[in-house]
Amino acid sequence: MINDVLKDAESRMKGAIHALEEDLATIRTGRASPALVEKLMVEYYGTPTPLYQMATINVPEAQLITIKPFDKNSLRDIERAIQTSELGLNPNNDGTLIRLALPPLTQERRKELVKVVHHRLEEAKVALRNIRRSAIDDLREFEKESLISEDESRRGQEEVQKLIDKYTELVDATGKRKEQEIMAV
To answer: Where do the structural domains in the chain lie, given as residue ranges?
Structure first.
């Protein structure tokens, strides 16, 4: 029973870390990456659609992303979505292809991006704490229903705490890595 709670908590924590990594991939560093734009939502015939489902995204150079839509009629929609996004990029449309030139990051912009990273890290830590609270509530409920002893409950809560410590360190390490990527000139 305790093991089930721990396994569930750990799988949810892994999910939180995975979500954080995907989220951080969309934050711009000095290099072009398809991850910057692939999850961008584009209004396509009235339906918000992720860009990767509508176009081929390539990185021919370190500072350039090209987007070739499967449907040429969606060029304007994609362009509009890029302009209204928080990427701060200006799309260049030649009628068949959209080019996104990534200007070098200024020191000021790098510091802003680091703040965004810290905000996302804090959100991930809050998610981890919520998972911990849920797991501990489950253990206390089992104890109240006399399914496990008080000692087993305490031991389970200590194991949950060890899990959260481990995953919090992972969050910090992931954040530090992303921060270094952003600040590298």
So the answer is: 2-25+106-183, 34-101
Look up tokens 């990594």; give the residue: 21
Beta strand 98-101 pairing with 91-93: antiparallel
Class of domain 34-101: alpha beta
Q: Which residues contact 176 (CB under 8 A, 6 or more apart)?
A: none
What's residue 63's pLDDT? 84
Taking alpha carbons only, the member of 183, 178, 184, 170 closest to residue 14 is: 170
- Tell me what pLDDT residue 176 has: 93
Tell me the two tokens of residue 22: 């995907």
Tens of pLDDT, residues 2-26:
888 899 999 999 999 999 988 888 7
Q: In the prediction, which pLDDT does 185 show? A: 63
Strand locations in the chain (E): 41-44, 47-50, 55-61, 64-69, 91-93, 98-101
| Ranges of residues in the chain whose predicted pLDDT is under 50 | none
Q: Give me the CATH topology for the region 2-25+106-183.
A: Topoisomerase I; Chain A, domain 4 (1.10.132)
